[in-house]
Amino acid sequence: LLRPVGYIWPTARSCYSVSKIITKLNSPTRSKAFINASRSKYNHFAYVQIDSSFTESIINSLKYINPNFEYNSTISPEENLIILFQNIKQISNSLLILDGVNDDNELRKYKVILEGLNWNVLITSRTIPDSYKENNITVNHLPEVQALDLFRANYGREDEVDENAVKRILLKINFHTKLIILLAKAAQNNPLLQLEELANKVYNEDYKDENVNIDITVDNEENSVFQFILLLFEPNELSDEQKLYLRYFTVLPNQEIPVEILVKLFEKDTKQGYFINTINKLTQKGWIEKNGTFYSIHPIVRLVIKNKISFSIDFFTPLILNSEYYLRNSTSYIENGIYLSYGESIVNFFSDDRYELGLVCNRISLIYMGLHDMPRSIMYCERAIKIFELYGNISEILAQAYGNLGVIHNINREFEKAEISLLKALEIQREILPETHHDIASTYSNLGGVYQGAARSSQNPEVAMRYYQASLDLYSNALSIQEKRLTNNGEKRDAHNLAIGYNNVAMIYDDLFRRYNNFSYEKMSIEYDKKSLNLLLDYFGEEYPLTARSFNNNGLTFLRGGQLDEAREYIEKGLQIRVKILPDNHPDIGNSFYNLARVMIEQGFDSKEKIKETLLSAIDIMQKLYDPNHPTLNAAQALLIEQG
């Protein structure tokens, strides 16, 4: 019965006492220190490791206290336990330690029996039990100092411990007590394994590496390091739904995740109550950690799940489709950023070429395009195309992916690559879509943008004119479709697209006016700008972002044509709308301030102080959004310097 006090080392997530509150135990180390410090307070203490059923573990450990106790197989284990407790409860001033009580239902069931023993009882558990909430002390992990001491104690080699390497190990394993012991013993038993190498293997979760996964002995049991790790958790006790949720957690980022995100990704808001019940059961059993309204799993739990639960991608189809849904329906860069990390984690976990993964890659590519991270945007777009092509060379989603890739290349000023991708998209679309489909109009428009970019880049006026003419022809093709769609459907989306189409044509004529100094081009540019603005006012009114942009574009056209009063009127109107409807520090507001300052400088009747104030408003916003070498920011700063 009597065990050396130093043997007691709670490795659990929670420590708490029943019958009498012993102390507030803040960590496993402190619980050990408490037992050592309290040794003189007790005449006896008993240690029981709960490694089978609750009753059998206690009976098998304590039956030798009273030689007169005999197990009676004709009655239940619970009745035998009551008889045993009646025989030993007269042993006064005793402490019973129950280590590893991870089933709160059993603890609740035997609460009265435990209290009838009239001993002090200390229980450790991986779970967060409800049975003794008032006496529950949560222990998340060892403090760093004690964790280093534990590693040194089990490392046992005479050479000096590389503390930086050990600290890297501790952070990666989140100070997991049992794993500290396993890894320290692995380093002890393998003299060729340096701690820096061990830290690198742990960082990459390469526990199967031959230098790490060696045989060690822990608590008189011999096994390999990796097998010891797998024995820490047993998923066979879990329901199919609980196993599914653990699979989902494993492919998500290794971080705390808000419950409102989890329920959307796991169940898409359809079974919230069921989700909460399942996640709470996993938390109570110690598989999932809870911090307020955030949930996470320990890296070791993640490792066990990967190796002990089937990981066919078929299990993950709902999670993949849910992530694509929220990526597709995010309405702001903030929402995009929230779901981006989850989508990336999912698609990067799998090397499979499943269609659903292609959908997620396609959405991620578009988000990175919006964030101006073109290398990542291209990477995910090309993976999406590779996947979609496996399911056939002709499909609407494949055409969209090629179209997206063309737009990305155009932003990178890779005009030949952009042309190839967009022509491929157009070829597919013409084969499978009606001739007035909005995707065909969009591809015509994007091709027009490629040729417009090529024209602007060309130093040869004749070559540039050919590109401009090709661009104008393609924009006109897009306009023809958009005008037909608006006439036939009268939908706001068609009005929005047509307004953009008019604006694209206006930009072509504005380019031609500035390059060839032909005022007939300026007249055409103003005409199409006004058509765009009037359409937007008719369908959306003033308080609409595209309307504000159209006011701004009209103003810039007037500015380049020297019509400064009209330029100021339109730019100020656009600024007024943007300030009213857009968030503070939106880049469009900064650009409007900058354009207004340009007009004020050209007009020459505003005070320098007013001009500087306007430029400072622009610069203040741009500095929060752009890198220091952004051309528009630099131009605004240069104008400010000119004002003295």
Automatic annotation (TrEMBL):
Q: What is this protein called?
A: Tfp pilus assembly protein PilF
Recorded hits in InterPro entries, A to Z, give: P-loop_NTPase (IPR027417), TPR-like_helical_dom_sf (IPR011990), TPR_rpt (IPR019734)
Annotated SMART domains: TPR (SM00028)
Q: Which Pfam families match?
A: TPR_10, TPR_12
Task: Identify the keywords attached in UniProt to this record, alphabetized.
Answer: Repeat, TPR repeat
